[in-house]
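Suppose you are handed only two things: the residues of a chain and a line of SMILES describing coenzyme A. What would the bound structure be? This form records exactly that question and the answer produced for it, so the two can be stored side by side and reused later without any lookup.

QUESTION INPUTS
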Amino acid sequence: MRVRWAPWTTSDTTCRWSSTAVLPEPTLRPGVDLRSWVGAAPDELVESLVRARNAMADAPVPGGLDMPAWTVDEQRRDEERLIARAMPLHVTVAVEDGEVLALTGLRVPDAAGGRLVHTDDTTTVPAARGRGLALAVKIESLRRLRAERPDVERVGTKNAEQNEAILAINRKLGFVPVLTLTASVVTL
Ligand SMILES: CC(C)(COP(=O)(O)OP(=O)(O)OC[C@H]1O[C@@H](n2cnc3c(N)ncnc32)[C@H](O)[C@@H]1OP(=O)(O)O)[C@@H](O)C(=O)NCCC(=O)NCCS
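ANSWER OUTPUT
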């Protein structure tokens, strides 16, 4: 990865979601389906998943970091690495005409034990934003987690303070801010 270090200051808000939170009802327009899996993405979806994941480049990042494009090889390596660490990604996507429009992920440890689960990437391709898709995939992902892993009590997420969109979505889902971390980089 190429990272261009320049002076910057950023604040990230850490939020927690309790598995007892009341989730809103998702609204999906006809033709859009939700699909979920644990671990490796289905072969027929992996290319469009990777295209959609590249929409993460629109997330505000400190100092204008250069994020290289995500590839299918990197996707497969990432999946294998998380499976090897017994922390497979639980993924939910919104699909229309075989194309992934929105995705979200949770890093869920295999072992049971009432632990904290961390949120991975959430993104919607630019052409499909504002249709409730990010909200819908996150609702489905949290519902499935609650049903499949009743031992998990909390979900954590960390978002840039200026990322109004994802902060609004997380508030709708019942995430509660618990701390703000401010970091600065200076050139000596
Ligand atoms: C953040 C992102 C995933 C939102 O996707 P989306 O599918 O457009 O979001 P939704 O349509 O589900 O929005 C649901 C709610 O979130 C809020 N919201 C969405 N976009 C917003 C924006 N730009 N500003 C303020 N609130 C916003 C609204 O409350 C909206 O509900 P409403 O339409 O009823 O008012 C998308 O903008 C994106 O991919 N951004 C780049 C990647 C990123 O920043 N990811 C998050 C970091 S992990």
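WHAT STANDS OUT: The pocket of coenzyme A is lined by residues 55-56, 58-59, 102, 121-124, 129-135, 159, 163-166, 168-169 (CB under 6 Å). The helical segments are 43-53, 72-84, 133-148, 164-173.
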